[in-house]
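User: Fold this, then the next.

Assistant: Folding the first:
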Amino acid sequence: MRRRRERVVAVKEPLPAEAEEFLSWLEVERGRSPRTLSSYRRDLQAYCAAVGPGMASASPAEVARYVARLRTTHSAASVARALSTLRGFHRFVVEEGAGTSDPTATLPGIGVADLLPKALSEDELDRLLGAVVGTGPLVLRDRALLEFLYATGARVSEGIDLNLGDVADAMDGEGIAFVRVHGKGNKERMVPLGGAARAALGAWLSGDGRPLVTPARWRRRSDADALFLNSKGGRLTRVGAFGIVRRYAERVGLEAKVSPHVLRHSCATHMLAHGADIRVVQELLGHASIATTQRYTKVSSEHLRRAYEAAHPRAGTKAKARA
């Protein structure tokens, strides 16, 4: 008789008291989500492993060495996130009176240019979406996911968290519809869904799509409401969504450039290039600050040059002729 495998439950390793208090403050006072808190905890655990349990009183030199070491093994985005965690932690320690100075105060930040992914060109985007060919429910799901991420500029976490009720109204009628997205800090926003994405979602929700991967019995009650399912009928995970995007990127030689976040950045960049107001893009992406949107929607120098030549009365060839 085959022995039943025991389920292993990961135990949350405690951090020094100051770090645990910081995480509690983030949860209770700042309303951070469980996913965000997990990221903070991982950053603090790695920091503690490097500088020791006395991390709250680390010196500027210790923090600088730790960040420099991270730069050799992690992406700029990962280092920036870790540095943000350390800055928040040490500011909290000082404000609570458990420390006298902030060792991160003089550390330089991570350059914006290092953090921004390069948007795909519109031709590259067409190649990526064109790679989703074939039949079967999972192909319909994959096309719906890619079309949705590009059409809405949603974060991958926002996509996989969608429930059927969030898109129900968008599936009725014709033209541009709206989908309810739950963003950071559990802030809800309505995002428009264009024709291509709407058609792809409709195909996934038809009898040839999602119903064919619906299990006879749901493993988790929340899976029954999930918009995007995996092959076993559970809610699609973040890792699963990354895998889907990467699989089609590899088919067209774009694996080095494409991730779900690149689709978000491409959506914003393409909209700005076609004349969208930056405030509209801010609302679409769910940014609290317009400064954040400006980082995501950097316009290429070539596009800026063409726009300037077309719009400024003394920029083009006619101005030279008048001179």
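Now the next one, as you asked:
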Amino acid sequence: MNASPMAPDCLSGQPKAAKLLDRAHTSGKLAHAFLFRGPAGVGKRQAAVAFGARINCQTPNEGNACALCASCRKFFTGNHPDLLLVEPDGAAIKIGQIRELKKALAFPPYEARHRVAVLLDIHAMRREAANSLLKTLEEPPADTILILTGDEAGDILPTILSRCQTIPFFPLPYQQLAQTLTTEDALSAEESFALAAAAEGSLGRARDLLKHDLPACRREIAETLLAHTADAPEAVEKILTLTERAAGLKEALPDLFDLLRLWFRDLTITKVGGAAELITSRDLLPFFAPALQRWSLEDLAARLTSLDRADKQLTRNCNRALVCEVLFFALL
């Protein structure tokens, strides 16, 4: 990281979190424990490390970290001896990890003014581990700041909530997230915006969708649907090919259904004369005209219903290939 941790590239799109953290730092009365809480993939981990760098910067620039001193460089690379990161071991943080953390906290900071312990995804922490952490939250060691991160919908013990200053994080603005994807992931503006909207402002989720190549898969499905009719002999082979590819997505299949749902929603909005800025599937704009000519409002509603039905079937552990096959024939 080359810029100040409190600059836009670290807390961009999080003005409330930036304001609260700035106030906490400049007041000279740092809380002993913070909870960064909000959706997954919006930069809570990066912000936690950056805040640790800020409060330990050797040559601060107007209160912000310089990002150049030895302390900043060690924090940003994850190599500072006084930066302790605890993340889930498998699905959850376990009690053994908390015990190891408490042993490490028994010693004073090695070189920093404030040792920073970052515990990630505490909503997934096992209950016995959470209970073990409570004593440390109540009476933290001197010169130690604990920063916990958790999803907004996750189950966090009230006793932990009451011992932390909560810093709220929110979904990133679509346009801002799209710019990041365009710059860092070499996507077109249309692809980036569609991905940002599908990910509901989460950079982490956007990259998960991209990792499974879901935007390209959706485009192939749209192209196939519009190139064939249900009674065309060649449609069967095309649908079976799509079925094999989609079923192979496994746990990512519901995300593909979400992307398809957004497209049919956008077609419905356009059909009734909705504002162009409401359209999120901008990467599929070349397909809008033929789709709107082919499908009526009733047709679009029926296809949205088919997607909802397919989603429910997946939750009941129905065979993925069969669900996809039935769905794609229904979407023709």
